[in-house]
Amino acid sequence: MINKRFFKTKDEVEVTFELPEEQVDSSAVLVADFSDWQPIAMRRTGKGKTFRFKTRLPKDSQFEFRYLIDDQRWVNDPQADLYRPNGFGSDNGLVSTYE
Fold first, then answer.
1. Per-residue confidence at 48, pLDDT binned at 50, 70, 90?
2. For the whole model, what pTM was predicted?
3. Domains of the chain in sequence order
4. Residue 29: which H helix or E strand, with range?
5. Confidence check: pLDDT of 49 > 90
6. Which of 15, 18, 23, 86 could hold 92 in an S-S bridge, CB 3.0 to 4.6 Å?
7. Burial of 42 (0-12, 13-18, 19+ CB in 10 A)
8. CA–CA gap between residue 96 and residue 23 (Å, rounded)
9. How far apart are CA 94 and CA 64, in angstroms?
10. Which InterPro entries did the record assign (predicted)?
11. Cα torsion for 91, 83, 10, 8, to the nearest 10°?
């Protein structure tokens, strides 16, 4: 799941990436072009039973990403704005920060 929060006075968007806990055995990371494709650990939340990562991204841009679950399984977010072929025989999700 992807949640976006647009700010009226800032040129950035708060983006929250979430995965349901039942999809993950032990670990989930977000891998994205905004982090130079370096894995970012997602944290397990206590209340919502999800894995979550929150960041702020520049407005009016697009970013590619995927989730890596349990160090072995690649997953796309079903709520991605678009999908783009990644050159490895599958697609990356795309999150847009255009309002």
1. low
2. 0.92
3. 2-96 (2.60.40.10)
4. strand 28-32
5. no
6. 86
7. buried
8. 24
9. 5
10. Ig-like_fold (IPR013783), Ig_E-set (IPR014756)
11. -150
